[in-house]
């Protein structure tokens, strides 16, 4: 798998977390902090992907739910959630966002030898939202392509949820950060 | 060499002068004999040249020298102000503005030639020849000149440029060596200057060293008289034999009556606003904690902090408020240029120049407004013959006006031109696929299609406008400032484009309300009054949503519905009556919590498209509350009501 275009996000330190029973990982360099028990303010009219905002040290930060683009089920009521506060670049502007997690595990390094592209069959995830799949403590780890996901949901609506009038598929290549 | 801060100061000052110069030149065109304006232009040119030289920008100083002389001639009455002189001077002003960012660009030479040619034609003597003989000049620059960064060699160079012969240092005041402070200037100079040099020219050389300057000047063939510092006067008399001057500290006479001003880099104001925002949020938390604690002393202090924070906020905001007039000069210039380019006489006026807006808003409005003005002059106003045919006056009217309306400022550009062509707009909209063939839109809805991307009905693409880009960009900019834009037009009588903008983007007074357990902020400036919702109308039903408030009908919208809230309301709902462009409209809420200072935080790009909210704020308990954008909310409510009617 050496020809695989692995983003730098994946080869350095990553932080692993659990969502709907799956293990996911994001670049540790993007993580600012992990929050618990945060009051979420609902944003009426916003897409499910970013249905709320939270207060992170005096800033108003959107809270994103990766279960929407990754097509995971979303339980109605959930008490014990964690929020990973990440620094991303959205619409060419440095933006802080929160993403929901059921639990946050550890900062680790994925063995580059185990990293693979997502197999074309047998997965429920849209392939362009997944940068790579690796292994961690005997489990599969999915590295979501946050750039691709957030790019699709900019402006308050997800292109995947629009009526498809434009039909333009967003760029599927994972971006190297 | 100059450090960056000094350079920035110079550039800021020079930009201010360049702008003032432009305004005065434009005013002078209309009132060519106005003494104050002529003096003003001369002074600006002079100061610009002087500070250019002082900061080592010989390109600027050299370029401006001739213009300064020309206006000296105007001041003396030997050169007349005419359109050509104004046109050349405006072009020169542009060149200087260009030079500020591009040092050493030699592109100004043709302008100088044009000026010489023009002055030659108008038969102006270049300089008044005085009788022969020489000025005798002796001077000591202020002792602190060096420590303040002054450069005596520049003064000497300028004197040499005036024709100074044989400058000799005066060493008599040098202290003994152990008392010598290398930063204290003890040297003086003496020299002769040609008799044709005017006294003003000599004084001009010292304009940056007036405070503490000792200067003795003996006119050609006259007696030397020594100056007395205390009786030094700032007025310059024109009599050629005025010999004595020792200047008191004073900038050139104009600014004497102007209020003391200070230039501050804009980003410091932004930083300050951020800090005040944080202060206001911290204060809200303090008040909440104090109230919960029940400690009377703590509550007293908290109240004090609240008062101070409010005052701090108001002061900071007022610092940031900028009158529209500050950018009006650019529009005058634009219209002047357009008028020349299009060959149409345009009568441009600005109303409500004193109307103030947050500086960010004012800055970001400049481009869109220029675009609108360009469009109005190019497409709106007719050519002279067409106007005369229709019995209109030859000069077309163009008015930029600004005024307050609730928490908003309305800025409009109105022209007295031909009005917009509805048929052409409809045809174009159909051609562009914006509306279906055979359909028509009522009233202004059709006109507002001009803000759609790629729309342009100009049959000819002119140099000025009509490329079909622009109006959509204008709308996007205005919406980015949380404003809206509308056009109105009357065939044969002209059109007007109106921008509605929020007063500020930073902190507002808000009314905190609760609906279905969620808190929202309504900008207090939009709120008229609060009334009870009659119990009979507590639940949405088939009836009309109107209230009778003091014999006038007020339609209302239910926030629960607009914000897709769950659950059903309690029996005691309130109606917040707000003013909008649609008149008075009520918003039904569950509960009024109170008023608070609201620090507006922009929503992230993920939520930027949601027009219902103008931002978010952080409450005293740390939770986030969204700020309702009243005009957009009401617009949405109206659309939903329309849709409901159609469905029924």
From TrEMBL, chain A:
Pfam families listed in its UniProt record: CheW (PF01584)
Organism domain of life: Bacteria
Protein name listed in UniProt: Purine-binding chemotaxis protein CheW
GO biological processes: chemotaxis; signal transduction
Gene3D superfamilies from the UniProt entry: CheA-289, Domain 4, SH3 Domains
InterPro entries: CheW, CheW-like_dom_sf, CheW-lke_dom
Domain (CheW-like): residue spans on this chain: 11-155
GO (cellular component) term, any one: cytosol
PROSITE patterns cross-referenced by the UniProt entry: CHEW
Organism field: Allosediminivita pacifica
UniProtKB/TrEMBL annotation, chain B:
InterPro entries: Bact_Chemotaxis_CheA, CheA-like_dim, CheA-like_homodim_sf, CheW-like_dom_sf, CheW-lke_dom, HATPase_C_sf, HATPase_dom, His_kinase_dom
Compositionally biased tracts (Low complexity): 240-257
Domain of life according to the entry: Bacteria
Compositionally biased residues, Basic and acidic residues: 222-231
Modification type Phosphohistidine: residues: 46
A Pfam family matched in the record: H-kinase_dim
Class of enzymatic activity (EC top level): transferase
Sequence segments annotated as region (Disordered): 217-257
PROSITE patterns to which the protein is assigned, alphabetical: CHEW, HIS_KIN, HPT, R3H
Domain CheW-like: start-end pairs: 507-639
EC nos: 2.7.13.3
Keywords: ATP-binding, Chemotaxis, Coiled coil, Kinase, Nucleotide-binding, Phosphoprotein, Transferase, Two-component regulatory system
Histidine kinase domain residues: 300-505
A GO BP entry: chemotaxis
R3H domain ranges (all copies): 295-365
Catalytic activity of the protein: ATP + protein L-histidine = ADP + protein N-phospho-L-histidine
PANTHER family named in the record: CHEMOTAXIS PROTEIN CHEA, SENSOR HISTIDINE KINASE CHEA
Functional note: Involved in the transmission of sensory signals from the chemoreceptors to the flagellar motors. CheA is autophosphorylated; it can transfer its phosphate group to either CheB or CheY.
Protein's name in the database: Chemotaxis protein CheA
Species of provenance: Allosediminivita pacifica
